[in-house]
């Protein structure tokens, strides 16, 4: 039987990369899926792909920084599919990179808004809905950057993504009694638009790929399978974790 039969799932950052692969896998596993990101055309093509494969999906474009957008995604899940069981808060930005002594206040604030405040506002509304069904699973996308592996020049990104691990633990403790599990996934480098933006030369790609024990970057589908585990009842006794899915970059400290 499909692993997400009768489940309703919400995925942010679904227009490309890890989020897109995960939305497709969730749908293939029987979930009805609400997908979000800013690019409407990419969301529309994702909905078309899922529908063509026999799944069900609906999209809403917007910016995760804003509480009303997060609220609208949850409302859409309830309107279209009657409930919400799973939320993958995955949208993220690298933000302003470079030496930390030069990072602007606005750049810092924007990175925190997209990567940390947005997922918090998402979880706030998602969990409120999930407890009405007796529980659910929330997953955040964190990272190896600055947490398990030194990566100079991405202070705001590292701080925002490490913040998600604290948020994961706080929410898992607070809502465990109501049946809501909350976990974070910590990808290694994954070949997506963000990876290519951050590693725009063959030298940079070789360096980061070789930092992994597996000597390569991951594929979005490899992350999707890990997120499926955290989202599904296969992980029914797993909560408050920071799950490494990182090709071993965390054991090759630089
Ligand atoms: N690739 C890696 O090596 C890697 C490693 C560790 C962690 N991560 C994390 O994985 C997550 C997914 O990234 P990815 O690697 O799959 O890269 P990606 O293909 O660039 O995906 C990023 C997604 O986030 C969405 N997004 C960005 N800012 C947004 C905003 N303000 N509001 C709504 N949506 C927004 C983008 O869609 P729109 O542009 O359409 O809004 C896109 O769907 C991110 O949180 C990233 O930090 C990536």
TrEMBL record:
Gene3D superfamilies linked to this entry: NAD(P)-binding Rossmann-like Domain (3.40.50.720)
Protein name stated in the entry: NAD(P)-dependent dehydrogenase (Short-subunit alcohol dehydrogenase family)
Pfam families linked to this entry: adh_short_C2
SUPFAM superfamilies xref list: NAD(P)-binding Rossmann-fold domains
The entry's keywords: Oxidoreductase
Family to which the UniProt record says this protein belongs: Belongs to the short-chain dehydrogenases/reductases (SDR) family.
GO MF annotations, alphabetized: oxidoreductase activity
Domain of life of the source: Bacteria
